[in-house]
Amino acid sequence: MKENIVAKLTAKDDKYACSLADKIVSESQETDEWYEYFDDFASLLNHPKSLVRNRVLYILAANAQWDEENRFDLIISDFLMHITDEKPITARQCVKALAQVGLAKPQYIPRILSCLQSADLSKYKDSMRPLIEKDIAETQMILTNYVMEK
Predict the structure, then answer these.
(1) CB of 76 closer than 8 Å to CB of 108
(2) Which of 48, 52, 63, 128 has the most Cβ atoms closer than 10 angstroms to its Cβ?
(3) What is the rounded CA–CA span in Å between residue 20 and residue 9?
(4) How many Å separate Cα 129 from the centre of its chain?
(5) Distance CA 23, CA 84 (A)
């Protein structure tokens, strides 16, 4: 099952790849069994296909809680770049995933909040920009509340 995980997550059959990603995200909420593939997942962060980027943003976010080796330090900049991904759907997925990253790795919260605050959304169509702004506001609220409770 876990051999060639990169090939499986980038498979032509999007339905298969998507259901595999959902399974990994779901299992990663409960167990660290997928964490050993963190670097494989990270290698897909800048994949040319936005559907692959979407999947891997959620997989990495779900595995942030298991990251005792601080591998996330090596990818946080690449992860944050997707706040303004060329595809608005991927930008939205990134912003939503950042709430989970911040809760698992509170040391990133100031940087996440700063990137969300300064994100230039002007390139997005008027139909998508309000949705991204709403996602940003929700993630900011989640992370700000977390900081205030600590």
Answers:
(1) yes
(2) 63
(3) 7
(4) 19
(5) 27
Tokens of 149: 């409770």
Give the whole-angstrom CA distance, residue 94 versus residue 1: 27
Specify the length of the chain in residues: 150
Query: Does 20 have pLDDT greater than 90?
Result: yes
Q: How far apart are CA 95 and CA 100, in angstroms?
A: 10
| Type of residue at 94 | C
DSSP string computed for 17-50: HHHHHHHHHHHHHH-STTGGGHHHHHTTTT-SSH
Show the domain range for 95.
5-149
Q: What is the CATH number of the domain that holds 77?
A: 1.25.10.10
Centre a 10 Å sphere on the Cβ of residue 53 and count the other Cβ atoms it contains: 22
33-64 pLDDT, tens digit each: 999 999 999 999 999 999 999 999 999 999 99
Provide the number of structural domains found in the chain: 1
CB-based contacts of 119, cutoff 8 Å, min separation 6: 83, 84, 136
Contact status, residue 95 vs residue 139, Cβ threshold 8 Å: yes
96 and 82 Cβ atoms separated by less than 8 Å: no
